[in-house]
């Protein structure tokens, strides 16, 4: 027998030998390995041999007979045998001499996971890292700077040049003026979205590389249990604050289909992506109360819908099992490369979309379709207590979440949106339909049926919550 | 090009398709075969530095993070060792050959479908005992395994000393130690890969 081969308990070795004899087809794995996987009831392999092997029934019998000799499931028996072997090797090859350093990271680890210290730490990070750095500095100071520059120096020049070079008003509008490719599409991308998202990605990379995020998962695991998700689901949720599209893809790391559906729904509904979050933070950062109301509504919706969907969807709850990596001091080079790569990927992805949106709006305006949709949306806006101009923001939101948010920013700066309207618009827009990219990812990961069901729920729900919030704020006489 | 190896890596792959496309498939397949690269697959549990190693080997960039489960799709790149080109495949994390999540399924299917010429099992030096169980499963499966013990720097900081030769003797497969983040041990890994594939 090979030296490096694990010797399993006698009954299992016997079963392996018997199954090996019964297997007739060639597999991509060794027969021993196939036999072991069958004993562990590997579903893919079981269905494969059901089709291929003439002695299928006999193999099943061997598995059953073997199982009868153990109290624990065979997969457990096999795993323990392996673990024993592995630990033996480790013991022989590993020497340990304890050092100070280990206890410091251990201490920090405890601080971040213990709810008493962990929750304040979480809020500190959210406040300084996200709110102050991304919201106030990025979406406030930086955006102002670049926006002003655009409006004073670039837009007038572009408008003037196109007016002189292109004689037709229709074509002028495609490039310049209110909805032009340069004056709207590129301005939104460069002036509003770029600074915010860069800072957010930077912050996110630091948190990611330090190893803080998995500890955050551990910390919020309990809250997640309530809504029927395991702590594992924190990964896509946290990533969702970066980009919901990416996060929707990551939901495939969840164990059950049920969890994947709940997570996809929550991502589409209540988790704003970085660009959107940044713009909304910038928008509301002048009104801490407004920001609190927005955050409160989001958390409430998240918990409520999570809870309800976990009650309604059949299936069992999943357990939490996650590797906790060590806390590390992030490497500057890795962080900068990562931020740069994400930035580049993001910018390459959004710029054509922003330009496309400008073109579509141009076509829409030309054919009157745009005005028709806006006219249709206007009553809804009034219903929410919003100015009719807000209709176009929602229309933009279809293209991309951040595009809508950026449009809102624009309205705010022009003094069209004010006071409680801002909160209502922010809440509705956050809940509102996911962007095109996320939508197509949902189709890819969850299939048409689930995606359409989710969308059919989100659309009216978003407006309903907006309506309710407006009503509540009016009745309570809250304004900012 | 060394066609002996390439026959081996092509022989079993695509059986399903061959049935469907019959003669045509066989012919097309053969042509691809002649240019076939040797394949290196990187496997291991989440967050042990597979992506970091992938970047170091290929010079490409896939996002590396200190967060388990960030690679959900397969990345491919190329590396050259002693003038021989290799395709490097980065896989999502897997804990065992018995998959629980979809990402583990992706990793296993990949391992079986691609028939890599060498499987580099990347493990975290700090959690050797827990991770060696997968090494055993890979050996059991009859795959050409090389064990790469990564994060030696962090293990050293914790005061862990690892006897590489002992593990090599116990497992009967080549074992290298490295710290991919510091770019240490990458060349040794390449050497061992080349050595292994030649055999």
Quick structural overview:
Chain A: Residues 192-285, 347-449 form the Nucleoside transporter/FeoB GTPase Gate domain. Chain A is mainly alpha-helical and 480 residues long. Chain A contains 22 helices and one strand.
Please describe the topology of this protein.
The complex is a heterodimer of chains A (480) and B (199).
Chain A: H1 10-22, H2 31-39, H3 43-52, H4 56-68, H5 74-93, E1 94-96, H6 100-113, H7 115-165, H8 169-175, H9 181-210, H10 212-226, H11 234-240, H12 244-250, H13 257-269, H14 274-284, H15 288-312, H16 332-367, H17 369-383, H18 390-399, H19 401-413, H20 420-431, H21 436-446, H22 448-476
Helix pairs in contact in A: 1-2, 1-4, 6-7, 7-9, 7-14, 9-14, 9-16, 9-19, 11-12, 12-21, 13-15, 13-21, 13-22, 14-19, 14-20, 15-20, 17-18, 18-19, 19-20, 20-22, 21-22
Chain B: H1 3-11, H2 15-34, E1 38-43, H3 50-58, E2 75-81, E3 84-90, H4 102-114, E4 118-124, H5 128-140, E5 145-150, H6 152-157, E6 160-162, H7 164-171, E7 175-177, H8 186-198
Parallel strand pairs in B: 1-3, 1-4, 4-5, 5-7
Antiparallel strand pairs in B: 2-3
Helix pairs in contact in B: 1-2
Domain FeoB cytosolic helical (chain A): 8-95
Transmembrane segments (chain A): 179-202, 223-241, 261-284, 291-309, 345-368, 380-399, 419-440, 452-478
Domain Ferrous iron transport protein B C-terminal (chain A): 292-342
């Amino acid at each position: 027998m090979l030296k490096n081969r694990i010797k399993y308990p006698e009954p299992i070795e016997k079963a392996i030998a018997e199954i090996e004899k019964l297997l007739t087809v060639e597999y991509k794995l060794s027969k021993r390995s196939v036999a072991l996987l069958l004993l562990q009831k590997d579903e893919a392999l079981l269905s494969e041999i059901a089709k291929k092997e003439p002695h299928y029934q006999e193999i099943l019998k061997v598995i059953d007979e073997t199982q009868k000799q153990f109290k624990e499931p065979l997969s457990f028996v096999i795993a323990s045998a392996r673990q024993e072997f592995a630990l033996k090797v480790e013991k022989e090859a590993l020497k340990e001499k304890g050092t100070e350093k280990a206890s410091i990271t251990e201490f920090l680890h405890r601080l971040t996971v213990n709810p008493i210290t962990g929750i304040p730490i979480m809020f500190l990070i959210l406040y300084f890292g996200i709110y102050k750095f991304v919201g106030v500095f990025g979406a406030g100071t930086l955006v102002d700077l670049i926006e002003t520059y655009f409006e004073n120096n670039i837009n007038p020049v572009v408008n003037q040049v196109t007016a002189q070079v292109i004689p037709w008003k229709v074509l002028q509008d495609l490039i310049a003026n209110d909805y032009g490719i340069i004056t709207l599409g590129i301005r939104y991308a460069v002036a509003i979205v770029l600074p915010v998202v860069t800072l957010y990605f930077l912050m996110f990379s630091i948190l990611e590389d330090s190893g803080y995020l998995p500890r955050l998962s551990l910390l919020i695991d309990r809250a997640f249990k309530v809504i029927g998700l395991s702590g594992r689901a924190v990964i896509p949720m946290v990533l969702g604050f970066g980009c919901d599209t990416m996060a929707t893809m990551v939901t495939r790391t969840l164990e059950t289909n049920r969890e994947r559906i709940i997570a996809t729904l929550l991502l589409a509904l209540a988790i704003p992506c970085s660009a959107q979050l940044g713009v909304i933070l910038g928008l509301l950062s002048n009104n801490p109360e407004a920001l609190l109301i927005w955050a409160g509504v989001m958390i409430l919706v998240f918990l409520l819908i999570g809870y309800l969907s976990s009650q309604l969807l059949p299936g069992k709850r999943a357990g939490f099992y996650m590797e906790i990596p060590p806390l590390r001091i992030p490497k500057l080079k890795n962080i900068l490369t990562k931020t740069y790569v994400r930035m580049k990927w993001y910018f390459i992805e959004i710029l054509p979309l922003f330009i496309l949106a400008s073109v579509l709006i141009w076509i829409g305006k030309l054919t009157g379709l745009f005005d028709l949709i806006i006219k249709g949306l206007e009553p809804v806006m009034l219903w929410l207590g919003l100015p009719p101009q807000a209709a176009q923001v929602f229309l933009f939101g279809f293209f991309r979440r951040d595009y809508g948010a950026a449009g809102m920013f624009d309205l705010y700066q022009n003094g069209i949106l004010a006071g409680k309207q801002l909160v209502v618009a922010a809440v509705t827009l956050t809940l509102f339909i996911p962007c095109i990219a996320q939508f197509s990812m949902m189709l890819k990961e969850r299939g048409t049926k689930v995606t359409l069901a989710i969308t059919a729920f989100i659309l009216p729900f978003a407006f309903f919550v907006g309506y309710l919030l407006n009503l509540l704020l009016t009745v309570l006489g809250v304004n900012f | 090009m060394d066609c002996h190896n390439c026959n081996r890596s092509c022989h079993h792959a695509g059986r399903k398709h061959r049935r469907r496309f019959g003669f045509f498939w066989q012919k097309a397949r053969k042509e691809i075969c002649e240019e076939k690269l040797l394949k290196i697959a990187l496997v291991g549990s989440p967050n042990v530095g597979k992506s970091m190693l992938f970047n170091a080997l290929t010079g490409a960039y896939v996002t590396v993070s200190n967060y388990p489960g960030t690679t959900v799709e397969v990345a491919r790149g190329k590396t050259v060792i002693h003038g021989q080109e290799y395709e490097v495949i980065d896989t999502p994390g897997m804990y065992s050959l018995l998959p629980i999540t979809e990402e583990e399924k992706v990793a296993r299917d990949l391992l079986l479908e691609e028939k890599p010429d060498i499987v580099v099992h990347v493990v975290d030096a700090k959690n050797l005992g827990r991770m060696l169980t997968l090494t055993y499963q890979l050996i059991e499966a009859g795959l050409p395994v090389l064990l790469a013990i990564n994060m030696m720097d962090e293990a050293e900081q914790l005061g862990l000393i690892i006897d590489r030769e002992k593990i090599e003797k116990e497992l009967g497969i080549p074992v290298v130690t490295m710290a991919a983040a510091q770019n240490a041990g990458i060349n040794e890994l390449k050497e061992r890969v080349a050595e292994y594939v030649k055999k």
